[in-house]
Design brief:
It is a multi-pass membrane protein. With 256 residues, the chain is an all-alpha fold. It has one domain. Helices cover 80% and strands 0% of the residues. Helix 1 crosses helix 3, helix 6 runs antiparallel to helix 7 and helix 7 packs across helix 8. The longest helix is centred in the N-terminal third of the chain and has 26 residues.
Length: 256
C-alpha cells in the first residue's frame, strides 16, 4: 500500500477520534475514507479493519471521561454486556446480508432527531427523569441491544445514537451521556472485533497506525469536551447528526 494512502487514512482516523470523543459519529468520517481509499478490499474487510482504530480512540476518550465523570458501574456493566452480544450478532448478520434497506428509515430518524435537538434548547443540558432502578435497567438494556446491533450491522453514528438514548430515555445530561456512550461503544466495538478477527477480516498493517491516530484524536477531543461542557457538546451533537443525515441522504438518493 502506498505511504500517502496510509497517511490519509491516519488523518481521517484522527478526525474521527476527535469527533467520536466529543459526541460520537466518528464513523461518518472514518468509514467513507476507508471505503474510498481501500477500493481493492472487500467491504467487510475494510469495516473489520476500521473497528480497531474505533476501539482505540474510544478507549482513550473513555479514560479521560472516567477521570472527571461519576459513573453508575452496575448499570454500565449491564449495558456493556448487552451491547457486546448484540454487536457480535449484528456483525455476524452483516457477513450474510446487505444493510442498505435500512438507510431510508435512518434518514427519517436522523431528520427528526436534528429538528428536535435544535428546537429543544434545554435538551441534554441537565439531568432529568428519575426512574425506578428496575425501569432504568430495562431501558438501558433496550438501548444497548438496539444500538449494539446497529453498530455491528451498519456502524456510522453509533455514538450519537447512544448519546441520544442516554439523554432521552435515561435522563442524562450531554456530558454524562457522552461518558456512558464511550464505555458502551467500547463493548460494541469489541464485539465486532471478535467476530471480524475470527473471520480473518482485519488488516493489521493498516489498523494499527490508524489506531494510534484515532487514539490521539480521542484523547484531545475528550479533554476539550470535558473542559467546555454541555453547551459545546450539544453544538457538536447537532453538527454530527446533520452530517450523518447528509451522508445517508446521499446514499439513499444518489447511490441506489
Amino acid at each position: 500500500m502506498e505511504t500517502q494512502v496510509l497517511i490519509l487514512l491516519c488523518i481521517a482516523a484522527f478526525a474521527a477520534g476527535f469527533i467520536d470523543a466529543v459526541v460520537g459519529g466518528g464513523g461518518l468520517i472514518q468509514t467513507p475514507a476507508g471505503l474510498i481509499l481501500l477500493p481493492g478490499h472487500m467491504v467487510s474487510t475494510v469495516i473489520g479493519t476500521l473497528k480497531i482504530p474505533a476501539f482505540s480512540g474510544t478507549a482513550f476518550a473513555a479514560a479521560q471521561y472516567l477521570k472527571k465523570v461519576t459513573m453508575d458501574w452496575k448499570l454500565l456493566g449491564i449495558m456493556a454486556v448487552c451491547a457486546f452480544v448484540s454487536a457480535f450478532a449484528g456483525s455476524t448478520l452483516l457477513t450474510y446480508v446487505s444493510n442498505d434497506f435500512m438507510k431510508p428509515l435512518l434518514l427519517v430518524i436522523l431528520l427528526l432527531l436534528a429538528i428536535y435537538t435544535f428546537t429543544k434548547k434545554n435538551f441534554g443540558q441537565h439531568t432529568a427523569k428519575q426512574y425506578s432502578r428496575k425501569k432504568s435497567i430495562v431501558l438501558a438494556i433496550g438501548i444497548s441491544l438496539l444500538v449494539g446491533f446497529y453498530d455491528g450491522f451498519i456502524g456510522p453514528g453509533t455514538g450519537s445514537f447512544l448519546v441520544l438514548g442516554c439523554i432521552a430515555l435515561l435522563g442524562f445530561d450531554f456530558l454524562h451521556a457522552s461518558a456512558n456512550a464511550k464505555m458502551v461503544n467500547l463493548a460494541t466495538n469489541f464485539g465486532s472485533i471478535c467476530l471480524f478477527s475470527l473471520k480473518g477480516k482485519i488488516i493489521w498493517a493498516i489498523a494499527l497506525p490508524m489506531a494510534a491516530s484515532n487514539a490521539l484524536g480521542g484523547w484531545i477531543g475528550a479533554k476539550i469536551a470535558i473542559k467546555k461542557g454541555n453547551g459545546f457538546i450539544r453544538i457538536f451533537f447537532l453538527i454530527v447528526v446533520i452530517g450523518t443525515l447528509i451522508r445517508f441522504a446521499y446514499d439513499v438518493f444518489y447511490t441506489t
